[in-house]
Design a protein that fits this description.
4 helices; 3-stranded antiparallel β-sheet; 219 residues; single chain; alpha+beta
Length: 219
């Protein structure tokens, strides 16, 4: 399916267009919306949100550390509240989150580093390749249908995304590599997800991995 240029302007975190009536929400995965592309829904404490992934050219970095030291960062334990996690990391000691927090794309400034379960949704709906999945990963208690809740991947599900722009080698595709989430696992490690096979794993915070910004809009 064709992917159009993203549109709109606004700045309030977690809302739609600042100073305007929020338009109807996106309906098709990969649809241009709110400065990026619709990537699925997430359920945070009973409230559903549209997840909007930033354009690759402006909203992705191929080499950012979770933190410059392997030490604890308070306020980063949530597997779903990416805005809160990321805000707690918005400083030079946390390059991946600081990169996302500093973005202004399409007039929006509420971009952040996604939490573990938000990042998982991006893989589920925008998996770039046809590789088989890591079947010990993928369980997401915050998933929203049509993604199954609290269910690990099978070898073939999720399949490669049908959104051509997000397929491997194309303009918006995730790298078949590891992306940081904003969720801390321990003083030494943060959670990441591999976009080749969906493996969710912990890495030393000082490792340099990919980072891709998102924003969320209440349904």
């Amino acid at each position: 399916m064709p992917v159009l240029s993203a549109f709109g302007a606004g700045s309030a975190r977690g809302f739609g267009f600042s100073g305007r009536t929020t338009p109807s929400g996106p309906t098709v995965i990969g649809q241009a919306f709110g400065g990026g592309y619709y990537a699925g829904k997430i359920n945070d404490s009973g409230t559903q949100y549209y997840l909007i992934v930033a354009p690759k050219a402006t909203g992705e970095s191929s080499s950012k550390q979770w933190k410059t030291t392997n030490t604890t960062t308070s306020g980063t334990s949530s597997v779903i509240d990416g805005p809160s996690n990321s805000a707690s990391m918005n400083n030079a000691s946390h390059p991946a989150a600081q990169f996302c927090e500093g973005l202004s794309i399409g007039g929006y400034t509420d971009w952040y580093l996604p939490a573990k379960n938000e990042l998982e949704v991006l893989y589920y709906f925008l998996k770039p390749s046809t590789a088989t999945n890591a079947t010990a990963s993928g369980s997401n208690a915050n998933a929203v249908s049509p993604e199954p809740i609290s269910t690990n991947y099978t070898l073939g599900s999720p399949a490669q995304t049908s959104v051509s722009a997000f397929q491997v080698g194309n303009s918006e595709a995730f790298a078949t590599s590891d992306y940081w989430s904003s969720t801390q696992d321990s003083a030494l490690q943060g959670w990441a997800q591999r976009f080749s096979n969906g493996d969710q794993n912990r890495y030393s915070k000082v490792n340099s991995l990919y980072a891709r910004a998102v924003r969320r809009i209440a349904v």
